[in-house]
Design a protein that fits this description.
heterodimer; A: about 650 residues; mainly beta; 26-stranded antiparallel β-barrel; 26 strands; B: mainly alpha
Amino acid sequence: MRTIYKLLLLQGVLLMAAPLSGQTVPLDVEVGFRVVRVSGNSDEYRTQINERPGFLLRNVTFATSDFDGRTNLVDHLRVDGSDLGAGPAGALRLEAGRARLWSLRFSYRHADFFSALPDFANPLFPTVIPGQHTIDRVRDLYDAEIELLPGHVITPLIGYTRNTYSGPGRTTYHVGNDEFRLASNLDDVDQEVRVGANFAAGPVSGRIVQGWRQFRETESLALAPGEKNGNNPDPVLGLPQNLTNLNRQTSVKTNTPSTTALVTGRIGPRLRLIGSYQRASAEADTNETETLAGSLVSFEISRFFAGLTETASTRSKATFWRGSGRAELTVADGVDFTVGFARRHRYLDGFALVSTLYLNTVTFAGADPKDLLKLLQAQNAMDRIDNHFETRLSAHGIGPWSAHVSWAETREDVVVTPDLSEIVVPGGQGGDFGRRVAEWSAGMGFTRSGFTFGADWIGERANDPIVRTDFLDRDRYRLRLSWTDVPTHLRVSATGAQIDASNDRPGIGYDGRIREYGGEIELTPVKPLRARFSASKYQADSRLLYRVPEDFTTAVSDHRERGASVQGDVTLTLKWFSLDGSYGRLQNKGSYPFTIDRARASAEIPVRAGVSLIAEWMRDKYNDAAQDTGNLAKFAANRYGLYLRWQPRATE
Amino acid sequence: MRRLKKTLRAAGGVALLGVLSLGFAKGQTAPSPAPAPEKPAPEKKEAPPLCVDCHEDEGKSFRGNAHTRIPGVSWGKSNADNKACESCHDSGAKHMESSGEDNSDIRVFHGLPGADFCLTCHTSLSAHASFKAGPPEGINCLTCHSVHKSEPRTAHLLQNKPTALCASCHPPRGAAFHDKPFAHRLGRGGMECTSCHDPHGLPENHGLRLTRTGELPCLSCHTEKRGPFVFEHGASFVGNCLSCHEPHGSSNHKMLIRARVDQLCLECHSTLNLTTLGSQPPATHNVTLPRWRNCTTCHTAIHGSNLSPRLFK
């Protein structure tokens, strides 16, 4: 949706609400202009931050339930909007209704998706390898739901969701024995209509909703200008690889009806039973046509060829259902016992018929110039069943103490039946796999006189991995301490967490540890001044054995993070102006070293009752110069904004 | 040129917004009443005391509060009666008689019993129903919500902006979103922790808001990755998005969990042990060369393909 329409829609809503809201306008609007100055790699800046210059509705809040008896149709209205305009992401949300008559929830979200990374996948590599996949796309999400007669025995509801994603991009295509960059134009629309009802009759309440989701995708691809030579500069079997043109059109249509149901029943004051059921069945049809011409080699057909024409027609289906039951029993005041079971099943199968006509083919021996038709008929299936059982005992409010213990077990059964066409190197593509994970957890807490202490542990033990990165043992520990002194507005907190995961099976040797700990102090030495300072460390180590493809030796995949972060901010709020400043620095000395400095300062100066001016400066500096990538990813970005804030309520 | 046009349109929209808003504001200004001739004030019966007579700040903040919509309760400039207060705090007759000294008949909301009282209304269908399955010890409704002193720019009577609120107990997560170079834009443009997690706790999946068809919340937005695909990547069927991505903020490009893509892929795609799912790439894949380090240069349809068994398109 274009910015102007969004702003007009918003204004319309506010004007409609104006006569209803009486003389007090519970409104807060912040609107202005932002200027952006980037030095260094602007693509990296846009990939990471992407704040653009232009007009920006930074905030709008309007909330009232005070209609002064002027209408019986609405008794509450709330509009919240943020960062609409220059982007990269903004949202608008509306809630309105009348108690026991109707309620409406509407939300809109916009996001700009940009990615163009200079050294993607090749950090620390001596030669700079530009990232070849880029996107510059836009996503808009709309969601609306109306409930009629909320709070009555039956509350019908109607909902609609729309998610669009479109725009240009660059991708690569492996054909012959080279990769060529293609220019893509994507247009996706995902919509769902749903109807259903909530019901509440005595101790039984629930919800049942039937939805119909429809996904449509069209993508056009063509050889990008100047990219006819591909990635591979060397000839293959004496023939330089090149493309003179390529065109591909793909369309996907997916329909997914879905059903969800939830029922809750109370038996006496202490027992609650909850049952739920979900089911969805998706069917996707894809059609593709592709034509290309060039000078290429295919080892698959053992021939040189001068072009190809391909058509594909595929169908895939996925069914999913999940059922669960749960009982919550209040054993005594503050002591609860819960037990639950859930079963999930997902089945997926797909069929593809791909017809490829290679044009003007020549064998490697130089014979038989002719067209060659290759048909691919593939049939795949995957089946997964998960059974999950859990039980938990918790006690709270025993003086200052509280505690819980729980146990859960998940059993996964997976059957993968790949088509022969998928198998390149024998092994690992299909089969029956099972995994059982038992999870124990315990935690306790203490709260008194502003002091809070919490500790918990989760331990998981598995019998088998399904994929190599699955753990056999995993333990998670967390500790939290905080102290708040209300009279002096002093708050001190510290947290620490550690996760250890391992799988010592021969040939896997997985060993991972994540540690994160930090502290924060917030104080208000005098009333208008508030200061906060925090420091934290993040450490991650992961090691896992793998087989090197080119020589079949065993190597270790080693990933490390050594992040240290400091951050501080100060706010000074006086009657005639307020100042806000913050600075943060993150330095990571791990596998992908970099530093980031972020600074922000803003001043708000009232110019008349209810109206103030806000000047803001933001700076982000990213530097991964520790890598040998020629500083391609380095940038410094300054944003300057001037905004007008209007709060009529402040005139009260 | 296109951007200029867009900017001009936006500028026009903002200008219109400003003009209309000013008119709106002007229209809202109460006309000054003409001075009335002085008359002796009629004797009034003494009105019963109101809660807001003493709790003035709470009274002001209550305007627009969702609790004014409780059946039987009304709240406006002219009728700030005690019913709204009493619906949660009880009548408090002794409290009033003692000028606030006696709190014995006032219900206060400290600790979990306070949360239990909130749940007398906020239960049944919504996610609140699973409150007991979720938040850890020492947490109750008022840890995050404030009925009287909520942050005005947030919905749901939250005490602070949602991301800041979550970060107060989960600082490393909050810091990761703010500090790390590749992260979702939380708190800036509509996405919050609560976009993916249900803070009231759901019995399974770490409080994640699964889609109505049982998928991770990632697919609520990234619908094009949903499939179903004829050639599904096993990682997304046996695992999920988190098998390769770190949504809470990553040091690595595209929020991946490894800096080098070849290592990320080869951790699963290796036949050093023969009992797990994951095939071995052929020996032509020489990962010492840059061309082979980024597996997705060729296997572009890494989330699943309908056209290519090897995920080439």
